[in-house]
Amino acid sequence: MASESAGSFRIGDLAIFDETHLREVISSVPGAVPPKVAGCALAYSGSDGRVALDDLATHIEHALAPAARAEFVSARQQALTVEDCMSARRTILDRLFWELTYWKTPDEYERLTAGEQVHLGALAFAHVDGGIVLDAGAGAGRVTMPLARRARTVFAMDPAPAMLRLLDGKLASAHIHNVELLRGVFRRVPLADNSVDAVVACSAFGAEDACGGQRGLDEFVRVTRPGGRIVIIWPSNPAWFLDHGFQYTSLPGHLTITFPSMLDAWTSATRFYGMPALRYLEATGRPELPFEVLGVKAPRDLCWLTVHK
């Protein structure tokens, strides 16, 4: 039988998501898991424990909106082959790999981002000094920490409780006290209108609805004061932002992925980067990776918008 796993995750790991987050990640919006696919993935196959699958399916059913719930239940009741079921599971686990990483293995993500430092010259474009800033999709805090040293107050928002707990510990260890942790998503920011001077989002916010999209951008504009700025660091699709009135900047200087140790480099490369990175590490013997080896642009790009209301 084909394996269902993506990385080290299995379909049962979806149980870690609470109902609020399941409603976000299983829906009909672009970029999310379609309810029909989720239903097919939770169909029973002979190698599964029926009770565990039924419990997970019930958990998902309770989370979904009525229309999505009906689609999920209908798909789960289909007569499927084992191959169809496993294909649906691989689709879910591939699509939710990063979400599961944030919720289930935040230490692995912290290890990764410890090497993937971004160009902090981007903060100058946000005009954060002495201001109130929303770090949207804060994750393990690679932007939160430098923001906190420049801003008066930082709201660090993330949907994953495990990430917020990790970040809370880092802030305490660094004796940083001007950061308030918020659980929230791009499309529903838990802040009042005109409450921040800037919004910064690093390698998280994007064009698809599941990654924020137009509703998320509207929320960023809503919470930003007139004259404030929205800065998207390391955007995956700069063209979408340019179409929405942003300006694009690529900052100068050489950037590389630099890990604290070879163990950190090897572990992250094995889990997140794959064979090209592993071969490069083996050849050089140094805990450094050029972004070019991974086939991605270095995190020096940003898109920024001054808010006018």
Compact description:
With 309 residues, this protein is of the alpha/beta class.
Key traits:
9 strands; single chain; 15% strand; globular; 2 domains; alpha/beta; Rossmann fold; 15 helices; 309 residues; two-stranded antiparallel sheet
β content, as a range?
Answer: 15-25%
Secondary-structure element sequence?
A: HHHHHHHHEHEHEEHEHEEHHEHE
Radius of gyration: 20 Å
**How many extended strands?**
9
Report helical residue fraction: 40-55%
Describe the structure.
This protein is of the alpha/beta class and 309 residues long. The protein has two domains: 94 residues; 198 residues, Rossmann fold (3-Layer(aba) Sandwich), CATH 3.40.50. The protein contains 15 helices and nine strands. The strands form two sheets. Strands 3-2-1-4-5-9-6 form a seven-stranded mixed sheet. The protein has a two-stranded antiparallel ribbon with strand order 7-8. Helix 2 runs parallel beside helix 4, helix 5 crosses helix 6 and helix 7 crosses helix 13. The longest helix is centred in the N-terminal third of the chain and has 14 residues. The radius of gyration is 20 Å and the shape is globular.
